[in-house]
Each structure stands twice: as C-alpha cells, then as structure tokens.
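Before the break, one more example. Copy the sequence into your notebook; we will annotate it together after we see the structure.
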Amino acid sequence: MSTGSQQEEAPGSGPTVLRILLGAQLRRLRESKGITREDAGYEIRASGSKISRMELGRVSFKERDVADLLTLYGVADAQEREQLLVLARQANNPGWWQQFSDVMPGWFQSYLGLEAASTLIRTYEIQFVPGLLQTPDYARAVIMLGHAGVTPEEMNKRVELRRQRQQILDRPDAPQLWAVIDEAVLRRPIGGVDVMRAQIEFLIEASKKPNVRLQIIPFHAGGHAAAGGPFAILRFPEPELPDVVYVEQLTSAIYLDKREDVDHYAMAMERVCIDAEAPNNTPEILGKLLHEVGRPA
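Here is what the structure looks like once it is written out:
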C-alpha cells in the first residue's frame, strides 16, 4: 500500500502514514478543482500514474513537486502551503528500519511503517508465533527455515530487526495487539523443546500486558473462517485513514484498504475470535502446553 519512513528513533510516529495523509490531501485538492491526474502529472513533468502513486502514499515526495501542485490547485495561503510542505519533508525522513534494508525486502519495509503508526494490530497466525511476540531464539529458528545458510552477521541483524519492532509494544502510546494463534503454532517444535518452552513462557508473560490480547484456537474447534492463511488488520489514529489488511506471501505482500476487502477480513477475524478460547483462558492453556512440550506423543 505504501512505503515506510521515519528518522532513526524508537519505532513510533509513522511517516508512512504521513505520506498517505499528504497524498489524500493532494487528491482532495486536485478533485476540488476538477483537474485530472494526467494534467497534474504534466505540471510536475511526470505521468498520471505518478500522481496516482503520490496520492496513495506509495512514493516519496519531492518538495518542488508538492509546491508546484499546490500552485496548480490554487493553494495561495502561505500558512497552508507551509504546513503541507513541512508534511512532505517529514514524510521523506528515513525510517529507523532503513539500517536493516539489506536484510529485508521493500514490501516488508512498507509494513513496518504501517505497524509503527498503528493504534490497533489484529493478527491471525496459523504457522508461527507473531513476530511481535517472538523470543530471539525462536526468531532465529524461524529465520533459518526461510534463509538457510545465512551468515552469523546477517542472522544477528535479522533478529535485531525483530527485537526493535517489538519495542512498539512498550511505548507510552503503544498500540493494542490482538493476536489469534492456532494451537498448531504452539505444538510445532520450532527450534527444539527448549526454544519452544521459553517461547511459551514468554507468551504467558506477554498475555498479561494491558495492551496485548492473545487468543488460541484449539484443535477441537475444527475448521474456521480464516483457515486460508495468516493476515493482519491495522488501524490508525487518523480517522480519515481506512484500516489496512496485510497479507504476506512468499515473495511479496498484499495491502488492502478498499472497504469491501477490509470488511471481508474483519468478519473473518471476528469469526476466528469467536472460535478461539476466551483471552482469560490463555494463561491456563499456555501453562498446560508448557507442561506438555517435550513429552512423548
């Protein structure tokens, strides 16, 4: 849906969202004047498709282009122009995750920008513990599955990226994380018995955080609404921004923000939450699983 950015600081404010906000404002200004994307693109020596990408927040903004578009759209008030130009500058700041760009694809950088700016993260997982709740050793084991033969340096960098992502849950303005995990995730011995025991213990502690809601779908629940695969739904503090659905694939990711798509995934999430055990039961369920890990089947 967009690309990520922010100054090197603790994961927090979201320039990814700033790009989306600025793009939305530029779109409203253009439409209010009845100007086509093609004509707007001609004004900044670009194409209509470039204007479309700018309005969706999918590309960085050149300050000169924004200034030229504001002139074309009749924005003459100096204060209003400056506010939008400042927004353009802020939206182009490099993200804290840029230092990890050599070990992750661009489409995942987009997700980090959205995740850092969200107020609510709802996620459904059927294969792995969510990245925001992984221990370092569990993360190493997961990374090895998809990146066999990585150097120790690259491995450490990938694990550190995951650790820095997790800092958002401890911010003063931390987002709410609502994770629904299939029981199979917790019975799959990723990394071996000791790693899984430590991971389950970590989840028990995480489930006690006021901003973390963790539910487990037991095997006896049978089939359920979202069995097709994992996904996340992100919500932002800006009321004009729609929720975004993130669906990760092997070599890319899909970002959905059309109302009908988001509603479809939201209903699926509601159903898996109903199929899952209540959050209050999670510590007890995890305690039993912890006791069973490593036992002969």
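The radius of gyration is 21 Å. The chain has twelve helices and six strands. Try to locate both features in your own notes.
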